Amino acid sequence: MTTEKARQRRIGSGFGALSTADDVLDGVDLSGRTALVTGGYSGLGLEITRALARAGAHVVVPARRPRVAEDALRGTDRVEVRAMDLADQDSVKHFAERFLATHPTLDILVNNAGVMACPEARVGPGGAWESHFAINHLGHFALVNRLYPALSRGTAARVVSVASSGHFLSDIRWTDPHFDAGYDRWLAYAQSKTANALFAVHLDSLGAAGSGPRAFSVHPGSILTPLQRHIPREEQIAQGWMSADGTPAQGFKTPAQGAATAVWAATSPLLDARGGAYCQDCDVAEPALTDDMLTGGVKPWATDPDAAALLWRLSAELTGCGDEFGRLGP
Description:
Order of helices and strands: HHEHEHEHEEEHHEHEHHHEEH
Mean pLDDT: 91
Radius of gyration: 18 Å
Number of strands: 10
CATH class: Alpha Beta
Structural class: alpha/beta
Helix content: 25-40%
Shape: globular
Number of domains: 1
CATH topology: Rossmann fold
CATH superfamily: NAD(P)-binding Rossmann-like Domain
Strand content: 5-15%
Distance between the termini: 17 Å
């Protein structure tokens, strides 16, 4: 079994920060494969969906706004839009039931949808769950668990969770994950991105022990997309993300470049023995030696297998998923 330390070492993929999703998939034939991309109709998700479809995959796009998704994906072949709201566990359950009734296998699942630095909002049972944690993590946790039968029958199935260097700002807040003691929008986002990475660590350990999927998390890089819709333009300029005329700052990627690492993690044979890895710039990320999020890398709290198992237990308790198929859950 790959150790935590050995897992996070660059492998020399031949691609880099400027590679696009199409570059990564050049020569890759996904004909006959089924993929699912949450948030696959906007920003990075739209680029991921289009790239996978161009490579031959049939791509299912769950969407909170199906009509908007259909408009965005009009003209893209081999794409199917279905209604689902990650903030609503019943919606996730119903989507999964319908999916399993019509798609016996699932080969690629990209957990891409999410919210960032949004105003405080409560969802879930009794409105008890903080929205970043609920949407970015718990919604995807339930989705993957409910689709596990299809993933276990997929061809070398992979689950890729879109995390972020935002995880630098916060470990899991074990004593107050829902910010009952006071809300901070950036720490809420950061915690959810740490959760995305830890989810991949534990899911992969379960898949590697049986016939389940291998799992990875990815930092796509700095990209301006609709994800930043809750952040005022003035704040984005003050942060140095863009100039006054809206031009992205130097070092920011295009959406096509930002989508590349997720697509690479979903398809590259170089990762066959690196399950659970946190990736960036189309390679495995090195441990972060500084607090510079632009340099990237991964903090130890986002790759700790004990923390990953603890988060799995917490998530299973909250969602009622996780032990549903026997192999799942510590």
